[in-house]
Amino acid sequence: MSTEYNPASLDAETLALAQQLIRAESVSPDDAGCQILMAEYLSELGFRIESMPFGDVDNLWALHGDGAPLFVFAGHTDVVSPGPLEAWHTPPFEPTIKDGLLFGRGAADMKGSLAAMLTASRRFLTAQPDHLGTIGFLITSDEEATALNGTRRVIEELQNRGTHIDWCLVGEPSSNLALGDVVRSGRRGSLNAQLSIKGIQGHVAYPTEALNPIHAALPALAELVAIEWDAGNDAFPPTSLQISNIHSGTGANNVIPGEMNLLLNFRFSTASTEASLRQRTETLLKLHGVDYEISWSLSGLPFLTSGGELIPAVQQVLAARLGIETELSTSGGTSDGRFIAPTGTQVVELGPRNDTIHKINECVATADLIELSHIYSDILDRLLGEGTR
């Protein structure tokens, strides 16, 4: 796609780029050529392009300008599976615009945001070719699945090089009812546990010769889910625990099972720690005399951007363009911001509405994508424009 600047056609270019990206069947961790398209576009704008593959994951690192401060657009090209194709009104990888909506897998999460980032950069660089500092892109194909070889690995490499990101805008779909009504200023932590309750298998007619792990665990589990782990704080809701999976038994109605397996997940605030949640859980299981084994895995620690220049810049742009006072939120799932924020970077998430993400017939309003591109370029202007010197 040509990068010759034409303000009248740049809005249409945002939609065209989004459609090109949606056509790529980039089910995680397959990038399916999305980053090649983005790299070619950014290269024509003068960005220095670096590919950072790790394992089967493609990662893109691109820079324009020199020195501090470094502003980075972060996002992912991978999408979740479309599910049953026959349930879609239109094929998920054949982008379709109908009634002001762009349909396709990844339209909202988050190929629309990627397209808006590209055209926002073009708009800004045309007006500010000698901008302050550096603009960067950190793009991965490993966000929706394991997230092991994507942003996490790129950040590790950048830290080894001594590269510090000052501001990072993640294009996750943060908006709820209208574009820009919610901005993520942080995220809760996510802690997972695989819990196995041990029993003794036997015949249901002879319960004294067996040990039912379901019966043994129920009092402990009832107490576990009733605990108030913390009260949250001004920035975070209270920590919550959910039992997401339970499996036990052979399928026969006359066999007492010998084991019960559960999956647990904590979404936790800064009022709790990984260590405190683990300790309280295992102390309770021991108090109930449960014979158990448990393994823990941390998906990410909670993070919060509460100071600095990034949040005010985003708030000012949204107020100026949309006439709204945006809500700062830490709700929702995890994002790659959890790998970036611990380095001392100010992180914010701003993208389109999230009401159709991961769903059949995922879509985004075309007017919102066009506006999002302007919002992104205005944020660049407030932070890196000539007027900020």
Automatic annotation (TrEMBL):
The keyword Hydrolase applies. Pfam families: M20_dimer (PF07687), Peptidase_M20 (PF01546). Residues 186-292 form the Peptidase M20 dimerisation domain. GO terms for biological process: diaminopimelate biosynthetic process; L-arginine biosynthetic process; lysine biosynthetic process via diaminopimelate. Its EC number is 3.5.1.18. The keyword Nucleotide-binding does not apply. It is an enzyme of class 3 (hydrolase). HAMAP family: DapE. This is Succinyl-diaminopimelate desuccinylase. It comes from SAR86 cluster bacterium. The lineage of its organism: Bacteria, Pseudomonadati, Pseudomonadota, Gammaproteobacteria, SAR86 cluster. The gene is dapE.
